[in-house]
Here is the input.
Amino acid sequence: MPEIPEIEILRRECQEKLAGKRVAALVARPSIKHRLGTEQACGALVGMRVSGAGRRGKMLILRFDDRLAMVVHLMLRGQALLLPDNGFDFAVSPVGVIFDDKTRLEFRQVGLRIPQLVVKEGLDALPEIARLGVDALSPDLTLERFLSMLEGRRGAIKALLMDQGVIAGLGNTYTNEILFAAHVHPERDIRTLNPEEIEAIHRSILPILQRGIELGGSSAESFLHLDGSPGHFHEHAYVFRREGQPCRQCGAIIQRTEVGGRSAFFCPKCQR
Ligand SMILES: [Zn+2]
Here is the structure.
């Protein structure tokens, strides 16, 4: 699933490549068109220009004339691609925006979460945005704040890091790598973590996410940049999907287990 580095990459690319483009048409598979937004909003979009791109957790937000916002969740394998407009295939892309410069933005493999068009003022009231915790890339995620998030909690630390209502934007790839960098086992109960371990986890979050962005994101699943090129973070992962292979730091064999129904990868020697 695309996580905060991948969506942040797309946000930057949309800001750079889409801002200023004028909408010629909003296209969608007929059976889902009514779910994109009100008829009024969909109609108003035509003629508007992309005024910017934002992000809330793992959601990409495209703004139009600073009045309408399109909320895009790429789910597990979604892609957002900017292509020359040479015809639209609903079997491949259920939704897209055609611009008047003969390019189109296509959303592929978004599953049931098709993009939603809302008035900008209504953005924060959307349930999936209102419920989000502190953004993982935000300076608001201080050590103090992180400590207070963990206070009184129980359960595996990895599950907490992936809880979007606590910290928004982390998913399975990056939480595995953050816990490896912090030398903390993903199954550790929050109540057993000492202050040094909590600090190590907190200290690992930003550098791992920044490295994800620098390496163009992870394409272990199907993430692609706006131009269709893949990212390379997954090729440099220390533990994610490396079970059976030697640890890049100590040579022990990376193992896999399950935490909260998701795969957890760890080095039995480096992580306690
Ligand atoms: Zn190791």
Observations:
- The radius of gyration is 20 Å.
- Residues 247, 249-250, 252, 267, 269-270 surround zinc ion (CB under 6 Å).
- Residues 195-214 form the longest helix (20 residues).
